[in-house]
Design a protein that fits this description.
alpha+beta; FAD/NAD(P)-binding domain; eight-stranded mixed beta sheet; about 30% strand; binds flavin-adenine dinucleotide
């Protein structure tokens, strides 16, 4: 570790590591730190945490030469998405084939993505990496940020990037106040085998107590994500494996038949948070440090990847400019805020509309799902947006 850098990235999760890889070919001196060691090389068994990585993010990974290493471990194509409601018969199916595409994206374990990015950094040796180490304080002046680390070292950087997740310490130390809203829900995650094949389709049933999703994995396995209200989540947690398997199959309306768990069960609390600004004096926020959303649309990490690519582009557009220059950071904020705000708002609205007990709302919901299924132009536009191939994309993610 040196005493001074152009950019220090705090957090080497999927998003922070993506930014580090985008900056590998630049002339910037970059350090990336994390409080934890990077994940080990993935084993034979699926990890619990997976993400639906859309085509936009996949294009970015191809440009960064990491998609091949990711695919070499394992990825599972998602060719369609079937959404239906517990109350009524409304349903809609979004198919990649409807817009002439082979898939909507891939289901990939988070650790597979992170490991491939870290291996890419280690391979070139261009970027310094340090772990396990945490940031203790940030002190910004007109020229630098002094970063005090838990290791006792103090380094100077012209820009500090907070990629340290939803409870970002960098955000707090930079004085960016963000209100955190709890959904009073937990996601129960598990890998399971289903009796009927998933057909490379992501199945999601909206229940009054929160959506229940089955994401397609290889070998007939699925990743189950049940975003359940706290009381239900608590009772699910206390069930035996057999009871839980029966509850999952029952609440999914037996769409995929019987369910058999293929490993442990995990749980994560769900929040919504959107920082009022993504920058302050020589500090920028990306990924969950800037915005955390309900996972029902499977878009949180995808937004973060686009943050990383956009910040990289803004930094490289002016190679001779100080990377902590307010004009660069403001341009980054402006470029990302509209899309992030839309997705934060839309996922929040979905969570509330689909979680409502009201008969009238249930009627509208079912009408909406059926109408959406028939309105081909609108459906195609939604598919393209969710795939990350339309909208205001950074060049690195554009096909
Ligand atoms: C159940 C669930 C399902 C989801 N499914 C999807 C999906 O299908 N598709 C999708 O796009 N998104 C999905 N998401 C969202 C996605 O997981 C997150 O958006 C993504 O992981 C955020 O990545 P990140 O790198 O910004 O933050 P994190 O993954 O939180 O990583 C932060 C990193 O910073 C490090 N760190 C934290 N604090 C410090 C510190 N003080 N000092 C140093 N290092 C620190 C951590 O060790 C970690 O490595 C899902 C989320 C949940 C909860």
């Amino acid at each position: 570790m040196k005493q001074a850098y152009d950019v220090v990235i705090v957090g080497a999760g999927m998003v922070g590591a993506t930014l580090a890889v985008t900056l590998q070919k630049s002339d910037l001196d970059v350090l990336v730190i994390d409080r934890s060691e990077p994940p080990a090389f993935p084993g034979e068994q699926y990890e619990l945490r997976v993400s639906a990585v859309n085509v936009g993010a996949q294009t970015l990974f191809e440009r960064l030469d990491v998609m091949q290493s990711i695919s070499a471990v394992r990825v599972s194509p998602m060719r369609s998405m079937h959404v239906w409601d517990e109350a009524g018969n409304g349903a809609t199916r979004l198919r990649a084939a409807d817009i002439g595409e082979p898939h909507l994206g891939h289901i990939i374990e988070n650790n597979v993505v992170t490991r491939a990015l870290i291996d890419s950094l280690a391979g070139t040796g261009r970027i310094d990496m340090a772990w396990p180490v945490e940031v203790q304080s940030l002190d910004s002046d007109d020229h630098h940020v002094t970063v005090k680390l838990s290791s006792g070292e103090s380094i100077r950087s012209r820009l500090v990037v907070g990629a340290d997740g939803a409870s970002s310490v960098v955000r707090k130390l930079a004085g960016i106040e963000a209100s955190v809203h709890s959904y009073n829900q937990r996601t129960l995650v598990a890998i399971a085998q289903t009796e009927r094949p998933h057909q490379d389709c992501a199945w999601q049933r909206f229940l009054r107590t929160g959506p229940l999703a089955f994401l397609p994995l290889a070998g007939g396995l699925t990743s189950i994500a049940w975003h359940a209200d706290d009381t239900l989540a608590e009772s699910l947690r206390e069930m035996s494996s057999g009871e839980l398997e029966a509850a999952i199959a029952h609440h999914a309306g037996n769409q995929l038949g019987a369910v058999r768990l293929a490993g442990p069960v995990g749980g994560f609390p769900l929040i919504r948070m959107h920082a009022p600004t993504y920058w302050s004096n020589r500090v920028a926020l990306i990924g969950d440090a800037a915005h955390a959303i309900h996972p029902l649309a499977g878009l949180g990490a995808n937004l973060g990847f686009m943050d990383a690519a956009t910040l990289c582009e803004k930094l490289l557009n002016h190679p001779n400019r100080d990377p902590g220059d307010a004009r660069t950071l403001r341009a980054y904020d402006r470029a990302r805020r509209a899309q992030n705000s839309t997705i934060v708002g839309v996922t929040d609205a979905f969570k509330h509309v689909f979680g409502s007990n009201s008969q009238a709302v249930a009627g509208m919901r079912n009408f909406g799902l059926k109408a959406a299924d028939r309105l081909q132009p609108a459906k195609r536009a939604v598919i393209r947006y969710a795939m990350g191939i339309d909208g205001d994309l950074p060049d690195l993610a554009r096909r």
